[in-house]
């Protein structure tokens, strides 16, 4: 089996589609399709069913991916170590983040780090938390920030931040003048909700049930940034991580505290070998500095 074909298969599994895999691997979608067809032919079984234009993993595909991940972790460690040995002095830092921190907090850390280390190249991607976890576990990335609902098997992890959620709404919303938004205020309101599996969404659903409140869920999305943008367009009200609205990136919204308090939890991830270069240590320090500064502003 060609290692490139294995990389293609793994990329499809962690991103959920051929198009996203092509972006991740910096190649074309037809090339992805050719590699997948070739690998299935060599294996003698189907890895995916093609359903309405989507690639859905077969049972055999899921079992094969389990073996692929186990082998890629070992290979990833070797690649990471070789890169670290090669790049001492100049180097590259590879960082991946969930969207909630990826557009406000992490760019602050990148800017501060680059001012001190202008010779260092930074590879940065904003991905879903599960993809961030896989990128770090494989050794492809040095640092990851992900939501706490991920499977932490195969990565070193610790709590990075637990910010209190804020309620965002259009400036002219009827709740914009209230100092605090409470569950009863959201009865019947057009609500911009996080995805059902998100831990903050689960907490909010529990609070609504306890207070017998039924917001009108208009949109479900895994991205707080999407909620803030839709709120600015007058679509409704929703809860987001305060990092999403850092640096006043979105005009036309007001952010208010929500009671009872609900907290996001994000983890900082490292590859399983735990190797820390000086550059990695410095970048992590900038992440914590950006976190502290943002907390003070909020």
UniProtKB/TrEMBL annotation:
Domain of life: Bacteria
Any Pfam family matching the protein: HTH_1
InterPro entries reported in the protein's UniProt record: LysR_HTH_N, LysR_subst-bd, NocR_PBP2, WH-like_DNA-bd_sf, WH_DNA-bd_sf
Record key words, sorted: DNA-binding, Transcription, Transcription regulation
Every HTH lysR-type domain range: 1-58
Gene3D superfamilies, sorted: 3.40.190.290, Winged helix-like DNA-binding domain superfamily/Winged helix DNA-binding domain
Family: Belongs to the LysR transcriptional regulatory family.
Protein name: LysR substrate-binding domain-containing protein
Organism: Mesorhizobium caraganae
């Amino acid at each position: 089996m060609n290692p490139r074909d294995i990389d293609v298969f793994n990329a499809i599994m962690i991103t959920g589609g051929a198009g996203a895999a092509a972006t991740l691997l910096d190649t074309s979608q037809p090339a992805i399709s050719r590699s997948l067809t070739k690998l299935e032919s060599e294996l003698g079984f189907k890895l995916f069913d093609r359903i309405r234009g989507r690639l859905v993993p077969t049972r055999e595909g899921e079992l094969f991916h389990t073996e692929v991940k186990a082998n890629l972790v070992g290979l990833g460690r070797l690649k990471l170590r070789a890169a670290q040995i090669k790049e001492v002095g100049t180097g590259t830092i590879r960082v991946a983040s969930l969207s909630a921190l990826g557009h406000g907090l992490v760019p602050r850390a990148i800017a501060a780090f680059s001012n001190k280390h202008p010779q260092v190249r930074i590879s940065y991607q904003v991905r879903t938390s599960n993809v961030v976890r896989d990128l770090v576990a494989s050794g492809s990335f040095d640092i990851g920030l992900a939501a706490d609902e991920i499977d932490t098997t195969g990565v070193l992890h610790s709590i990075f931040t637990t910010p209190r959620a804020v309620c965002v709404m259009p400036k002219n919303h009827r709740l914009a003048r209230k100092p605090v938004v409470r569950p009863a205020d959201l009865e019947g309101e057009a609500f911009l909700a996080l995805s059902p599996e998100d831990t903050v969404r689960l907490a909010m659903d529990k609070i609504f049930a306890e207070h017998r409140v039924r917001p009108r869920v208009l949109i479900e999305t895994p991205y707080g940034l999407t909620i803030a943008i839709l709120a600015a367009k007058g679509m409704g009200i929703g809860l987001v991580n305060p990092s999403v609205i850092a640096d006043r990136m979105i005009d036309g919204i007001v952010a208010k505290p929500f009671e009872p308090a609900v907290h996001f939890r994000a983890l900082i991830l490292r590859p399983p070998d735990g190797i820390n270069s000086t550059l990695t240590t410095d970048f992590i320090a900038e992440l914590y500095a950006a976190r502290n500064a943002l907390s003070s502003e909020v």
